[in-house]
Amino acid sequence: MTIEYLDERLRDVKPAGVTLDADGVLHRGRNALPGAADLLRGLDARGIPWQIVTNNSRQTAQRAAAHFRAIGLPVGDANVLTAADAMAAFIARDHAGTHGRSGQPLVYPVGDRDQRDCLIAGGCRLTDDEDRAEYVAVGVNRQLTFQRLFHACNAIRRGAQFVVANMDATVPTETGAIPGAGALAAAIRVATGRDPFNIGKPAPELMIQALRKMGCVADLSIHVGDRIDSDVPAARQANMWAVLVTTGDFDRASGVAATGDARPHLIAPDLPTLNGWLLR
């Protein structure tokens, strides 16, 4: 199989920056996929900045990068942007910019200890006082209590901004799928009648932050992903070129049949084939 252009304009594009999904693109579980290390080294050799963008609602970039290195991928800490880190950055920026407030934003965390560490590292101040909270930040939490959910809902009803790391309904684990950040956000949404601001794919915020971090303009950058329900819409909404590799959950037929924001600009069967085009 070869590269398939669904938008001929991409044929002559030489990207100024590249963002990449991880699971299903660079690796499957603890196994790096063929061509993954070659792609990352090739981008470095050509001076093309790149970022791995992941919906992970718990890990810092440092912990995620350590995992990638452990499975043989040449990934530096600065090459990763997680939804957890991006959520903290969004809250800090929104607090200072959109609302023009001084000091650190006061955040009521619904996620676990790792998410709290991300929020603190990103310049947020945590509070368990629903009356003082300016933001409610939702991520995966295996020890979530009804009481914390109750206070989060109260804070949102009183005017706190509702932010979620991603809208993933479940997270796979060794013992089966557990409720994801999206499932927790859905419960809060039903209870409050308020819609959350989503950081992760398929929303564009994660991609926009990655572009800003790389110093690249959207229309000269591409995103490589394996999902037409998250990667492709996120890229297109961020005005990037969307590349689908069929090493994950969606095949060529799915990509060709997709419409609107779910339709990729280019389809590649695997990374070795994509590398021949991308690193030309």
Give the gist of this structure:
With 280 residues, this protein is α/β, with parallel strands linked by helices. It has helices at 36-45, 61-70, 83-96, 113-121, 146-157, 181-192, 205-214, 231-237, 252-257, 271-278; strands at residues 4-5, 17-20, 27-28, 31-32, 50-54, 80-82, 106-109, 125-126, 135-138, 161-164, 170-171, 178-179, 197-198, 221-225, 241-245, 266-268.
List keywords for this structure.
280 residues; alpha/beta; Rossmann fold; seven-stranded mixed beta sheet; five-stranded parallel beta sheet; 16 strands; 18% strand
- Return the CATH architecture of the largest domain: 3-Layer(aba) Sandwich
* Proportion of beta-strand residues: 15-25%
CATH topology type of the largest domain: Rossmann fold
The strand count comes to: 16
Give the overall silhouette: elongated
For the biggest β-sheet, the strand order reads 1-16-15-14-2-5-6
Rg: 19 Å
- Major pleated sheet: 7 strands, mixed
Averaged pLDDT: 95
The ordered H/E elements are EEEEHEHEHEHEEHEEEHEHEHEHEH
Number of domains: 2
Helix content: 25-40%
- Give the end-to-end Cα distance, rounded to a whole number of Å: 18 Å
Task: Please count the helical segments.
Answer: 10
